[in-house]
Design a protein that fits this description.
Blueprint lengths: L3 H18 L25 H5 L21 E4 L1 E4 L7 E4 L14 H17 L4 H6 L5 E4 L4 E4 L7 H4 L9 H9 L7 H8 L4 E4 L1 H10 L3 H11 L12 E4 L5 H13 L8 H4 L15 H32 L4 E4 L12 E4 L1 H7 L6 H14 L4 H5 L3 E4 L10 H4 L4 E3 L6 E3 L6 H20 L1
Antiparallel strand pairs: 1-10, 2-3, 4-5, 6-7, 8-9, 11-12
């Protein structure tokens, strides 16, 4: 005879077994970092803009790019891009880095992941008004080709450069933030700029007078313009919102003395860029000192190369320099004149932010070399394929702050999954059911 207690135990076991055999929930499985959509919003996306942005334009992590478990797909390594010219060129697939396993392991890798997310995000926007609506995120509209693209402004902004080129609150940070303030002419520009106590609006005449009183300030203003993706030299007759310290000859002179005492560091001395700050990662208090030291050394080396190129060849030598230099002409703004200065340009500054010895940077460089060597559509298409899960881009929206998810593609073309400690959903479901069985039997058996 089977007693009542045994029957109850068997009934509980049968119910729990049914739970194990039930179909899995159909809710897409995505990395945990998607849930952190309230994280740091690089570029300062405003509530007003979000309210006027439809589902196609919101962050990829909030849109319809969620994928199920069998989301891995094969995509071409290289694609033919004819948006930049009549004949086109072979370029790496925008999802190149998505094929790499694991978390972005370094500052350079995280910056690459962030850049790739922005690239795809901007490209998905199909109209000029919508693209311009998210210009503060680094998107720009090419009217010639009708394409929304991620400009250098996506990287050259204080939120990204903090902990890489300078510390938050440093003089260079202040200078970049002031230049990003709207600086329309007249009282409206002065009022907007003056809202920040560290900034001051200068008309074209006032700016010229300030630079005459402290000529060395021009180099710092140029550097701040690069770091904020602003035009330099400023358009003739234009005013600007500048950091107040740039109008203080004593401060500029003190900075110059520090730079002169350590010429190997160029302008990027601690009294300009700050020291002792942390990485942009929220997960831990990680010192930014190693990355800042590497970046500063790379920028200083580029500055020295640019100066040598300008001294040897003037404007033409500056333009031909492999370091990616800018030529600032004479006071009249004649860029073709040999009377001027060759200094770090946007390409040089951008290159300095990425460690050429980093594994992810090498992977991107190798992909670029592979694709650009192919000069026809057919050879570009024959470059092969890579296995990716596009949903991984969701985890890179806030990668500079949260580090991204630890993501791997399972062998056999499976799925993207969190590799850093959580079992797959099926296994978790089975474990839960097993726990219910044991708990139930312990309670009544």
């Amino acid at each position: 005879m089977i007693d009542a207690t045994t029957r109850r135990c068997r009934a509980i076991a049968q119910v729990c077994l049914l739970l194990v055999l039930l179909p899995l929930p159909k809710k897409p499985y995505v990395a945990a970092s998607r849930a952190s959509s309230a994280g740091q919003d690089f570029g300062g996306a405003t509530a007003a803009r979000k309210a006027h942005t439809n589902d196609e334009l919101v962050w990829a992590g909030r849109a319809t790019v969620g994928r199920s478990l069998l989301a891995a797909q094969s995509v071409p390594k290289c694609v033919w891009d004819n948006s930049t010219g009549t004949f086109g060129q072979c370029v790496p697939n925008d999802l190149t880095l998505v094929a790499l396993a694991g978390k972005p392991p370094s500052e350079s890798a995280r910056l690459l992941a962030y850049t790739q997310h922005r690239t795809v995000f901007c490209k998905r926007i199909t109209t000029e008004p919508a693209c311009l609506l998210v210009a503060d995120l680094g998107c720009g509209w090419d009217r010639l080709t009708g394409v929304c693209f991620a400009s250098d402004a996506a990287i050259l902004r204080p939120e990204v450069l903090q902990g890489r080129l300078f510390c938050a609150g440093s003089r260079l940070d202040q200078a970049t933030r002031c230049l990003l303030q709207p600086a329309s002419t007249g009282s409206s520009g002065a009022a907007t700029c003056g809202a920040d106590a560290a900034c001051s609006y200068l008309t074209a005449a006032q700016l010229a007078a300030a630079l005459a009183a402290a000529p060395a300030a021009a180099a710092y203003l140029h550097l701040a313009s690069l770091a904020s993706f602003n035009e330099w030299p400023l358009p003739e007759g234009s005013g600007a919102c500048v950091a107040k310290w740039l109008t203080q000859p004593d401060t500029v002179a003190a900075l110059g003395r520090t730079a002169a005492a350590n010429p190997a560091g160029w302008l990027l001395q601690p009294d300009l860029v700050g020291s002792g700050c942390s990485s942009t990662l929220r997960v831990a208090n990680i010192s930014a000192a190693p990355e800042m030291a590497r970046t500063r050394a790379a920028v200083a080396a580029a500055a020295a190369a640019c100066q040598s190129a300008g001294s040897a060849g003037g404007a033409d030598g500056c333009a031909a320099a492999a370091a990616g230099c800018d030529w600032s002409g004479n006071a009249g703004g004649n860029s073709s004149s040999d009377v001027g200065t060759c200094s770090v340009g946007t390409p040089a500054l951008l290159d300095s932010l990425f460690d050429p010895t980093d594994a992810w940077v090498k992977a991107q460089d190798q992909a670029t070399a592979l694709c650009t060597a192919r000069t026809t559509k057919s050879s570009c298409a024959a470059a092969g394929s890579i296995l990716v899960d596009p949903a991984r881009l969701n985890t890179w929206r806030d990668v500079l702050a949260d580090g991204g998810a630890d993501w791997n593609l399972r062998d056999g073309g499976g799925a993207g999954s969190m590799a850093g400690g959580q079992p797959p959903p099926l296994l978790r479901w089975v474990l839960v059911a097993a726990a219910l069985v044991l708990a139930g039997m312990s309670a009544v058996c």
